[in-house]
Amino acid sequence: MVKIAIAGGSGNVALEVIDALVAIRKHEILLLSRKDVPVEDARLGVTWVKTSYQDPNELTEILKGVHTKNLIDAAIHVGVKRFAPSEWATSSFEHLTWYAGKAEIREYLRELNKGKKILEYSLFLPGLFTNYFAYPYESAKHFRPFETQIDFNKRRALTLDGGDDDRIVLTTVQDLANVVARAVEYEGEWPVVGGIRGTELSIGQLIALGEKVRGGPFHIEKLKADDLKAGVAKCSWLPTVDHPGIPREHAEALAPKLVAGMLLSISTGALKVTDEWNRLLPDYRFTQAAEFLAEAWRDKA
Hints:
Layout: E1 3-7, H1 12-24, E2 28-33, E3 46-50, H2 56-63, H3 69-77, E4 82-83, H4 100-112, E5 120-121, E6 123-125, E7 128-129, E8 150-151, E9 156-160, E10 167-171, H5 173-185, E11 193-195, E12 199-202, H6 203-214, E13 219-223, H7 225-229, H8 248-267, H9 276-280, H10 289-296
Parallel strand pairs: 1-2, 2-3, 4-5, 6-11, 7-10, 9-13
Antiparallel strand pairs: 8-9, 10-12
């Protein structure tokens, strides 16, 4: 049995991971959340604790006996064996300014282990969740996708001019959760860079897949890199971002910045993640984007 603490235990990606861990039925799971904790949780081995994450002494007490900077410091203090920071996305953060906090934690962990390993950790990097392209339909128990620049629902796409051959990795949130659950039981050392590769394909191939499963051509608008670098998105529409971490009143203003960041980061290879966990878990079968999206859009108008 492994004792596992999960910060942000009420987040939709966290809930997918928690379900995968609970299904193994052998671990003790401690969920840390800023929100009021449920009166009870019927899942075996799950305990909720409310915390502000600001008091290192409080965190130290919470984390005793259990395999953001305060959380890392507290984990080290009580001898936590392994740590997985909140990543779940890209190999690099170039052009992705909203991930500045993740970049800061990466650097903190890197400096922490400089010269001598203080804390074993892995950056779990699945690329982009395949589930986004099932929007507006639910394709997972907890994960809630939002509209992206490649919109299967309305058969349209915003792409970078000259970027049809740019490559990305799509991984289902279910596969991410299952890999994390297996990583907990993995007896070897965790890789620092923990790429998880479901399906690798080009932007052109992704749009072609969309046209196949949706039964018709997409309307494609190509945006210029120079405009995007200047913060200008010259297009007839922008994705509607409905995310719990982004207040609704800010989403519309952020949309051009998010589109520019995504298109430019894809051009640098940020979403073409590596396959470390695929190689460490060779018996695990990943769901391919074509089969997942064909099923997600079956019998949809």
